[in-house]
Batch of 2 targets.
Target 1
Amino acid sequence: MKNKLLFISAAAGIAISVAAAIDISNLDNYAAQTIPQYITKDNTQSFNPITDKGATLGRVLFYDRSLSLTNTISCGSCHIQQFAFGDTTLLSKGHASATTGRHAMRLVNARFSDEQRFFWDERAISLEDQTTRPVRDHNEMGFSGANGNPDFDSLVRKMNTISYYKPLFTWVFGDSTITEDRFQRALAQFVRSIQSFDSKFDTGLAMVANINQPFPNFSQLENQGKQLFLAPPPQGGAGCQGCHRAPEFDIDPASGNNGVVAVAGNGSALDLTNTRAPSLRNLFNPSGSLNGPLMHNGVFSDIQQVIDHYNQIVIVPGNTGLDQRLTGPGGVPQNLNLTTQQKAALEAFLLTLTGHDVFTNPKWSDPFDANGVLDISGLPTSVKQLQAMNLKIYPNPATDYVEIHVPIGDYSLEVYTASGARVMSRSITGNSRISLASFAPGIYTFQLADMRNKLRDYQKVLVK
C-alpha cells in the first residue's frame, strides 16, 4: 500500500453568493475609450466596430477554458493581463501539455497598427481570422478535426450546451445562433479594446508641439534615448523608428525579418517568415521588469541583448529575408557602434512606453471565479453557471482511493493533471470509489459532468 495523503480544496459544489462579474445593465466602456489625437493607425475592420456588447461577449470567450478540448486552456492562459497580455514562459502550454510553436505575442494595442495581418508570420489575414486559429490548433486548444480530435463544429455543439452562451449570443447578435464568424467578431472586438496610452511617453508627447522636441518630463538620458530611437543611422541614431514607428510603435507592414531566425527551442533550424511584431509599448511592467522573453523564439531575456543584436547584425547563412534597413551599402550587416551610454539611453526610453491601467483594469480581467463559475446579471434569461451537483470527494489517508459521493444519475468523470493532461475518463452512475494507485504526486482536477442536464462540477485533489 502506498503512502498517499490527500488534501481537498473547498467543496466546489457549494454555491457562494458573490458580486456579478458582468452586469449587463452597467457595461464597461469598450467602444468609446479615449484615444489620443496623435494615434491615427487602426486595423479595425469596417464590418466589425467595437461595441460594448460584443467586447463583453469577447471577454467571456477570451477567458473561457471550456472552449478547449480538455476545459483547461483559454486565450487568457497564454495572453496574461499582468504581463501585457503576453506570457513569461518561452513556449506556452496547450490543452494537453504540448507547447506552442512560437512565443505568445503581447496583445496590448494590437488594434493600433497599419499591419492588419496577425501572428509572427502574418498567416492570419486579420484579427478576426486570427482569433479562432488557436482554438482549431491541435496542440493549443484542440478542436482541430485531426488525429482523432473533434472539429470546430463540435465546439459549437458544446457551446450550445453551456448555459450562458445562447443568451449572450442573442443579446449581442439578435438570435442564439453560434457561428465561427460571430465568435471571431466578438473576440476580435475584445482584443482590439485592450489599449494603453497612460505612459510617461504619452504624458511627455502631450506637452510638446512635436515628438522631436525634448520632453519636459523626461530625464536627459530618456530624451537621448528618444532621439536615438527616432533618428536614422546616417544622422547618428539607431534607426529603430524605421520599423517600429512612433507614436503607436507598430511594425511597418513592409518589414522583412530582423535577423532572429532560429526556431524556438531549436537553434539549428531556421524560421525565416517572422516579419510581424507587437507594439513596443509595455515591453516592461510598471516595476521595470520585462513582460516575458522577446522575439518569436524568446531568445532574448534582457533588453540589452536586443539592443546588442541590432547594434551589430549577424546575417545567419540561409537567411534570404533580412530587412534591407538592417544592412548598409553592398549588403554589409548593420554596425551602429553604439556606446554603453547610448545603449543605456535606449533602454531608458523604452521603459517610458509602459502604462499602468492595462495591467489591472477589471474590464480586461478574467470574469470567471477560481472554480470556473461565470455569474452574469441583467440578461432577460438568467445566466448563471452553477456547479450545483453537490459533488463531494472524501480522501482516506490510509488507502489508495477516494470516495466520490454524488446523487444517482448519469455522469462523465474526467481527471486532469495540473498541466491539463487527461489521466482518466469513465462513466459513473452514483457513489464511486476511484483508485489512485497509478497517480503520481501532484494536483489533479476531478471534473464531473451530468449527462442529463449538462451541469458540471469540479474539485481539486492534491496527491502526495
Note: Residues 211-357 form a domain with the Cytochrome Bc1 Complex; Chain D, domain 2 fold (CATH 1.10.760).
Target 2
Amino acid sequence: MNSGALRIAVGVEGGLFATVAVGILALTFADLAQRKDADSVLLCLWVLGTFCFAAFFNWSITARTFLPMAPAVAILLIRKFDRSKPSSANAVWLPLLPAAVVSLLIAVADCQLANTAREASRQFHARFQTERGTVWFEGHWGFQYLCAAVGSQASGFGERHTGFR
C-alpha cells in the first residue's frame, strides 16, 4: 500500500472512531439531560471517566482501554430504545440473535486459542521429557500452567535457554 492510500485509510479509520466517540458522548449527555437522575449521573461519570482515562492518561489508545465503558454504553442504548415498546415477542428476542452468534464465535475462538497452548505444551513435553534435570521454558498463561503441571520450570525474564539442573 502506498503512503497516499495509507494516509487515506488512517484518516477514514480515525474519522469513524471519532464519529462513534461523539455519538457515545452525545448519547450519554442526552440521557443525562432527559432523565436527570442518579442512574444517569452514574452512567455519565462511567463513560466520561473511561473516555478521559483512555484518551488522555493511557500511553496508547486501544480497544482494551475503551472496553470498560461497553456495559455503560449498552445500558444507555437500552434506556434510549426502551421507550418504544415492541409489539411482538419476536421483536424482543430477535435483536439478541446476532449477539448470541457473536458470543458463540468468540467462545469457539477462545477454545481454539486454549487448544494451541495445550498442543504446544504437549509437543514441548514430548520433546524434552527424556532430558535429565529441570527443563526451563518461556511462556505465559495456559502454556505456563500446562508445562508446570508436568514438571517444567519457568525461566527468568529475558533468559533464552532450556537449562538443566
Note: The chain has a mean pLDDT of 79.
